[in-house]
Amino acid sequence: MVFYSPGRTTSYPDEPPHSGIRYHYLGGGNEVGNVGCVFEDKLGTRMLLDYGLAPTDPPKYPHESPYVKDAVITHSHVDHLGMAPWLCSNHRTTLHGTPLTAEISHMMWNDCYKVSRIEGYPLAWDKRDIDIAISSWNTHKFGDTWHKDSWKLNLSRAGHIPGAAMLNVETDTHKLLFTGDFDTRDSQLVSGAEPEKCDILFIEGTYGGKDHPNQEDTIKSFVDRILEISDRGGTALIPAFANGRTQDIVMTLHKYLPELDVHVDGMGKQIAKLQMKHPEFLRSPSDLEEAWRWCRRVSSKSDRKKALEADCIVSTSGMMDGGPAIWYLNRLRTDDRNAVIFTGYQAEGSGGRMLLNEKNVKIWGKRTPINLEVNQFSFSTHAGHSQIVEFASKCNAETVVIYHTDPNTARPRLVEELEKNGHIVHSPINGKSKIIE
Length: 437
Ligand SMILES: [Zn+2]
Prior knowledge:
This protein is of the alpha/beta class. It has 13 helices and 22 strands.
């Protein structure tokens, strides 16, 4: 059980730093996801960047946040905002983010709450706290400047998913840039992030040491594979995350395989509607609208049965840990013309990883052998190693803090290359404060 006793169990120092900028990771410093980073100057102006929980089994929670009047939420993935209701309920913190992030947030919190009940894992907040969090938003468009004491702040496009933002902070002494989850490459849904000059760059290093395969090659082999399955009379089940990946995959299928019959199920349907309400965060609003009109949205039991005859079904959950994807798999598994096509990383312990490694999945709690072909393609919207290194160099950052990364494999390779390029590199550890002069 997580016990946070507001103000008493935090490891954050009481006094502001004597000089420079202090940063302190509550989570996500030396791990992927679960992000929370407090930063503060000598005048005691203090802010929190993101406050998420990692929806692993069991979930991971960040350390308790000290009192913060303001927090910036970079984007609407649960590992960046899952703990925000606790913050708003206990500290009456104002949440800053883009209007789209704010709109999607309550869906993510509701889903997080629902999953915690089903899986039986503890949450440090309850349903009422979601209402408080929803009323705590102060939204900002990209490029609009706002002030906090003497700091000047603004958000800019991070790529990754629609509404995802990088945070720029100008203090009296330093210019800081926090990337949040970011990608400099365009996807179907969003355009990539642009570098900005800064003194201190806080950059996510999920893909440190790894470069993505060429995007066009990935799309081509994905499309060829789907065609093969449909040509033999099978259905391709495509598990996809609701927030970003579902829409990206539907747009890809619409662009390259418009002749196919594609059905979409899961929370990604509601999220697409919210994205279309905020076209300024999309690379091409008309492309998403057309793709969305073209695909068949599943909204009833009979729709679900009809989808079993389709060429493709795009559905949550992205890692086969529940959601309609499990219902479909249970129906599709008896015909070996069908196949499962993953579109992203499958975490340790997830249903998807079990399917890939052991050819079985838990269906309604029971391990069930699956004798279908399974493929995996990377549609990641995190910057790869080369993009991270190039971005840091174009930002001209004197100091680079690498977070949201595996400290044993991904980070050392980034540190090595960034130091070679002349940056001073920091490798933060959760719960430990550092000061940059
Ligand atoms: Zn994310």
